[in-house]
Amino acid sequence: MAEAAQSIIPTTAPNRSFEGHESVINAVAVLPDGRRMVTSSGDTFYLWDLKDGVVMKKMVGHRSSVLAVAVSNDGQLIASGDANGELIAWQGDTGELSTPSLKVRSNRITTLDFSPDRDALLASGYDWMVKLWSTNTWQVQGNPMNCGADVNCVRFSPSGELLAVATSKDIHIWDPRTRDSVAIIKAASDKNISLAWTPDGTRLLSAGSYSDRTIREWNASTWKQVGEPWRGHTDQINALAVNASGTLLASASSDNHVRLWRLSDRRNVAVFEHSQPARCVTFSADGKYILSGGVDQKVSGWAIPKAAFSEDDPEDHASEYALLEDATSKILPIYTMVRNACIIGDLPTAEELLTRHIEADGNNHKSYVNRSLVVARKCDWDYALSDAAKSVSIQPSLAGYISQGIALCGKKLLQDAMNAFDLAFMFTDGDSETILLLLLAITLFNANQHEDAILRIQQLATACPAADTLACCVVEAYLHVQLGNNALDELRHNKAVDHFTAAINSGAFSSEQAIHSKYEDFVVLFGWDLKSLWETANKKRCHALLRAGRLTEAHGAYRYMMDMSDEATTASCPFEQDCNALFTSSGDAALAAMDYDKAIELYSSAIDLNSSNSTDTMFEKRCRARLDKMLWEDALLDAQKIAELNPLSYLGHQLKHEALHGARRYDEAIAAFEFMLSKLNDSPDPQIRELRQQYITPPEAAMIIQEFTRAQLENSTPYRLLNTTGHVCDRVAQINTFKLSTEYKELLSSTMKHADMRMERIEKAVKMYFRCVMLSHRWEEIEPLLRDIQDKDISELDHVGGIAKLQSFCRTARDAGFRWAWVDTCCIDQNNIFEVQQSVNSMFTWYRHAALTIVYLSDVPPSSKSGALAKSVWNTRGWTVQEFLAPEVVLFYQQDWTLYLDDRSPNHKKSATIIQELADVTGIDSQSLVAFRPDEGSAREKLQWVSMRVTTLQEDIAYSLFGIFRVNLPVIYGEKKQNALGRLLQEVVAQSGDITCLNWVGKPSEFNSCLPANITLYKTLPSPLSSSSEDVMETSVLSLRDAGAVELASTLYTTLDQLPTPRFANRRLHLPCIVFAVTEVTPRPGQEDNPFFAYEVKADGLCDLLITTEDKLIPSPREMPIRPKLLLVRPRDRDLLEPDGCAEQFNLADDAQSTITEDYGTAPSSPLCDSPGMRPGENAPIDSEPDSRVSQMIIRLRQPFSAFLLAQQRGVEYKRIASEQNIIARVKDGASIRDVTDVRTLEIV
Prior knowledge:
42 helices, disordered N terminus, Heterokaryon incompatibility domain-containing protein, single chain, 19% strand, Serine Threonine Protein Phosphatase 5, Tetratricopeptide repeat
């Protein structure tokens, strides 16, 4: 069993003192040569000559307090670490710098140790990581070791094969070579502060904090504790040191003492007393002195007494008994040495002394009483009862019956115990009755009679005026503390708070008397710590409040304790760190749960608890919570505090940027960001410098924004815009206005930081800033042009005519929250042909990307009913088609700039009433009106929509359709409408291959004979063609059962499939088609005065046709060749090969041996050749097999089709002969597949 500290008179006068330090001494080390010593005080490092006691060198280089020192085994290197996490290596022989200052941690370095071979240096602090640094490269070796808690001390084993790490939770043993965890030791009940190895590496010594102020010894082979903890210190043990021979251990404590222990028997053999807490300790090289330092700002040298080196002969202890005398006590005659041993908790020593005394004199009843009370402290109730009975049997006494009552209570024999106390009262006088009653209450309390005990004390204090009221208060306070501890153990935190509060309010501390000395009997009998009772009650209440989640009250309780405490109590209070930890963890949890108010409150409490020593980390946490809460100014104060506490870090400036950005103080935010970048660039930590790659500078961000803005505006925004405040702005003015805006500065501030969302953020901001409102309207007689408003404030012009409309439009757009608007009258320079051309080709895109299009109906009176829109002239204008189809959001305004039908919905395209009204008047289906897409629908259908529209300039009827057809063409005013329309349709066919625009009747265009002279010819849609009956289709397919017919049909299908798409360029249409040669043209008689001529036309393979045209055809009988050569052609389109469905599931391979026939069945109806047909749109199912496609083609060929009559011109050129009606042709009954095999591409002019 480990021996506890004996009652030793401390040595207060050191043999030597090394003075001249300017601050607290945090570290001391002796160099291997034994002649020199290094000490740290403040930010200065001292090298001493031990012989002369003078400073050889002040080693300057740190910028904050040096907290840790290490000397290599060979003395060649000295390392020092400071509170800023900076490390400096020094040459051991000269004290000169070996390396410049290295930033090895983000916070303080609290412990250092060299490996035995000096190749590695351990450095750690108040985080969970332990890093090994190479002393050759000063780079980190391998991966850090994560210990799961704050690191307080690290020590290599003497062989270097193991590494011990003391943390705030446990002790970790690591293999430093493999980084494998060897063992985890659950040591001190609270924090493990210091470590030391024995020279042979077989034992590890550890020391704890205030709540477990013991030294523990560990077997390095089993990692089991050896013996009992070593007790003696009354406060945190800050440092341990073992002498070179491994026989002695020195410990330095905040209780102002340095204790010397003998390792062989674990006895405390000497105590050396500082005037203030001791922080560090070491042995001289020869092992004759202890060197220690601390808050008293000096290093003291203590000579080790000779008695420390060998154990005394047991016979020499006989002299101890001559020194034993009865101590003065009202009721307990306890020997002085026993009393002292009991006071410090050294019960084994007290018991041994008494046992030896009893062995020397077995009839001394006091010795038995004393030993009974000592073993009762150890809860050995049988032993205690035996000694008490022996004492009473020798001589009945007050102390004897008290010890008997205590032992019986311990055995839960309460009635017998009460009888013993009743007998004790026979020996009391007036002065001792109160103490005896209190002892009875305490004894009952220890027997779990808690309520009875408290009640007895309260009754004693109130019912007995002569009672020692202070003693009652002291006992009640202590018992409440015990009850509070029990409640804490049972997790009844609110109950614990009540008990600790009752202890504090008991009145025990109202007197200025030292209760621990006045009521020392309680300390001796029960081991009470009265000296720190008030402190304990307050600390425990704080902890209980914390555990109960009553954080604000905990903060208040702590402040009360600090205000009422002396300096020593304040310095030794561990609550601050614990409270900070709990406030912080609770704040982190609240922040994660987005409870920002609670997080801010908790972080603020943590900061207030440690206001004089708050770290930048805590301000960072609160700053982030305030940022999330959008408390920008408060967050800014925190960010500035972070920068003040850690001026070398970039973090404070980063958070300052975020706070200023949130507060919309963008210029300052950008400046803060630039400062942050400079901190990143200047950081000595390569990992910190690497963070710089995430960011860009303000000029770089500005360049990115500018390039994107220009591209965005070029693609979707008019070159000129109206600022809705009243000025017209070209592209340069738009961008300059943007750069001066708050939105731009906000974007610049955010673009520098968020690389992952940079382009997305820019796009969103630019689009939002340049949201534009477009105007669709009917031009009035007088409209303001660009020259009329250039460099003028529109709002100040006369409110008349077109200016009034322009002013009202700007006001309406501005009231809707837009800053930009566009009007075709004054936002295009009509004198700049390039700008006009760009505008015409871009207008559909501008309307498509507009945030809103306002349609102004100048002829719709206020409060009009449904139907007024349909009557508006706006519906007759050519340009207004694309101005309505292109936008996604449209609002209609009446003459007085009120909403049409008072419809206040955000988008009139969502109004069924308005859309139906438009559909009825325009002939455009509602789906296209709401969500038009240029690539949907046929060209013929779109041309029909605008066939009756008008424009002021004749070419505009074609130009207004550029966007609808998604074409981009030169704008050539003066070319006339036929040419403009021709160029448009030529481009439509060339780009899409859509030849539906060739389907018209009337006068042909001069541009190309396949095109109409006027867009009005598209007004009437062609009549739908009839389809063949099922019988006809079946007959057609059955006719292909012959293998030869199948081959011809397949060849025809392949030929048609491989034809190129229609090409249209340079006014020449290259049209792939099936050609039928005209064999006979016969005019009908009696047509001399008719402007149209009717001809009966015969062609190979087709039914006879009647064609009416303005052109005169040269009659030609069958036996005469036709001049010029005429052709009837069927343009090839995809429907011929891939119809929606036109055949049942026939298989050409079936019945291949059937009779060969060339009869395709009955021909479809035609003007001159009637045959049965299906209802329009009635089709048969589609076969899924490849051969069925050929069948479907044959069926399709037999159906009526719209034919073109072509007349050969020069060479291979043909011209279309326009007809008064659609030419509907069909294949003859019985026609052969060979009659439709003339497939070619014709050039039509």
